[in-house]
Design brief:
Distance between the termini: 15 Å
Oligomer: single chain
Low-confidence stretches: 198-202
Largest sheet: 9 strands, mixed
Number of helices: 6
Strand content: 25-35%
Strand order of the largest sheet: 1-2-3-4-5-6-7-9-8
Order of helices and strands: EEEHHHEEEHEHEEH
Radius of gyration: 16 Å
Mean pLDDT: 83
């Protein structure tokens, strides 16, 4: 069984995962920023090493508050009770010629992986991208992120570029950086295919 939306009111959705976990999916609010910081602090050591930026510096809450207020980012969250299970972020282009494009990043808390939460959040992000008028999404991954690559490709993202030794983690190790992108029309076509035939992907 695939995930099922059981209610949708005022931008807040109640969704049951394929294995029966009931989630609340909604935008992150300012009151959630302390919990969001703890969410990132509980990311696995490998996950922290792979993050593009230091999300845990002293300016974390002020930086996110400003980005949300200025509508430079859209941050959606999945909650299991009072626990933050996952987040997905849409970061719009800052230049006039890239205002139709957004960078997408998705994280699932280690305690809630393999329930399909990343897949649910990506679907919600694509719907939100339509509302904001985005036409294309892109993401950066490193070659070691096998599960993330698999989910990304399920949604129709294709590999645009491989940048050798372009990523350097906080331990000084180099990694290949992979750039993936997808047209929103193709993403919706892939989502329709997923609804027609359940595919046991992780996340």
């Amino acid at each position: 069984m695939d995930a099922v939306t059981i209610s949708n009111e005022n931008g807040v959705k109640e969704i049951v995962t394929r294995d029966g976990m009931k989630l609340t999916v909604r935008p992150i609010e300012e009151k959630d920023l302390t919990i969001l910081r703890r969410f990132y602090e509980n990311t696995t050591e490998r996950g922290l090493a792979m993050m593009r930026a230091n999300l845990l510096d002293d300016f974390f809450e002020n930086r996110y508050r400003r980005l949300i207020e200025q509508q430079d980012i859209t941050l959606l969250s999945a909650w299991f009770g009072r626990s933050l299970a996952g987040v997905v972020l849409l970061d719009r282009g800052r230049y006039t010629w890239t205002r139709h494009v957004a960078n997408i990043r998705c994280y699932t808390h280690p305690d809630f992986q393999h329930h399909g939460i990343a897949t649910i959040l990506l679907r919600e992000a694509f719907e939100n991208a339509d509302l904001h008028g985005y036409e294309k999404l892109y993401c950066y991954l490193v070659s070691e992120q096998k599960n993330a690559i698999r989910i990304t490709e399920k949604f129709g993202f294709t590999l645009e570029a491989v940048l050798h030794n372009h990523a350097k983690d906080r331990y000084g190790r180099y990694h290949e950086m992979l750039m993936y992108s997808v047209d929103l029309g193709e993403a919706h076509r892939r989502m329709d295919q997923m609804l027609e035939s359940y595919i046991p992907y992780g996340g």
